[in-house]
Amino acid sequence: MQDLLLNINKQRLPTHIAIIMDGNGRWAEEQGEDRLFGHYHGVESVRNIVEGCAELGIGYLTLYAFSTENWDRPKNEVDGLMTLLVETIRKEVPTLNKNNIRLHVIGDMNMLPEFACGELQEALELTSKNSGLNLVMALSYSSRWEILNAIKQVAKDVSTGKLNPEEIDQNTFQQYLCTKNIPDPELVIRTSGEYRISNFLLYQLAYSELYFTQTRWPEFRKQNLYEAIIDFQNRERRFGKTGNQIKAEIQN
Ligand code: IPE
Ligand code: IPE
Ligand code: MG
């Protein structure tokens, strides 16, 4: 197989890639295994893709690991997933540091069990000096929760006089989102053949390029990532303008 890496234009890489890692449960069930078996194998894909992004020099990688709605899954799956996520993050800290990767977490941390909050906090601090890839884990995250949370904070600041409603623009509002200081994703990948967003970064995805693949998350590897990036690089991003305007901008 030809290495797709050679076909990637290094000058036109997305700064921020976000991935909806889906299909762990079905992948496991297809081989007669328990759903948690799929989540364990999904960790191998996470390692591979984080490494792939770091090697390419991608600025931000956001991984949707657990949604607010996922709390409604059967208790044994929720408990197993939480333990797996927290233990993996803890175990990976030395590798993150070795590769200069900084960890961030977005989501409703109040819903996480106490042990998880402590472990996460420690991992965030231990990697906080790293200046390479920013790895953003979306944990107990949902976009509607994030937007409502932001609106509550905005309302509070307006009521105390800290914020003038007339002066609220997109930049101001972004400061109230979990993703403040993080650029919007240019490329969003969803695995496992589902064509939906499932409450992920609804505000930030306004102009993202969406890429869907049938590959289940436990089988997703660097070559699949390269395929998505090449697909992204062949698209024309118009942001509401005409194709001719965009071509003229590129020439100038
Ligand atoms: C993605 O795989 C991981 C999480 C949502 C936590 P799923 O667990 O959703 O797997 P499927 O979609 O049921 O196959
Ligand atoms: C989205 O996957 C959430 C994560 C990947 C963490 P789900 O499997 O929960 O989404 P739906 O329920 O199929 O939309
Ligand atoms: Mg799923």
Give an overview of the whole structure:
This protein is α/β, with parallel strands linked by helices and 252 residues long. It is 43% helix and 13% strand. It has a six-stranded parallel β-sheet with strand order 3-4-2-1-5-6, sandwiched between helices. The structure holds 3-methylbut-3-enyl trihydrogen diphosphate (2 copies) and magnesium ion. One 3-methylbut-3-enyl trihydrogen diphosphate binds next to β2.
What's the structural domain tally? 1
Average pLDDT for all residues: 97
Which structural category fits the helices and strands?
alpha/beta
Level-1 CATH class name: Alpha Beta
The CATH architecture can be named as 3-Layer(aba) Sandwich
Beta-strand percentage range: 5-15%
Question: Helical residue percent?
Answer: 40-55%
Q: Identify low-pLDDT runs.
A: none
Question: How many runs of DSSP E, i.e. beta strands?
Answer: 6
Identify the bound ligands: 3-methylbut-3-enyl trihydrogen diphosphate, magnesium ion
Number of helical regions: 8
Order of helices and strands: EHHEHEHEHHEEHH
Specify the biggest β-sheet: 6 strands, parallel
Please identify which CATH superfamily we are dealing with. Decaprenyl diphosphate synthase-like
Q: Give the radius of gyration.
A: 19 Å
CATH topology: Undecaprenyl pyrophosphate synthetase
Name the features.
252 residues, alpha/beta, Undecaprenyl pyrophosphate synthetase, six-stranded parallel sheet, 8 helices, binds 3-methylbut-3-enyl trihydrogen diphosphate, binds magnesium ion
Task: Give a short synopsis of this structure.
With 252 residues, the protein is of the alpha/beta class. It has helices at residues 24-30, 35-56, 75-98, 114-126, 143-159, 170-174, 222-233, 243-251; strands at 16-20, 60-67, 102-106, 134-141, 187-190, 209-212.
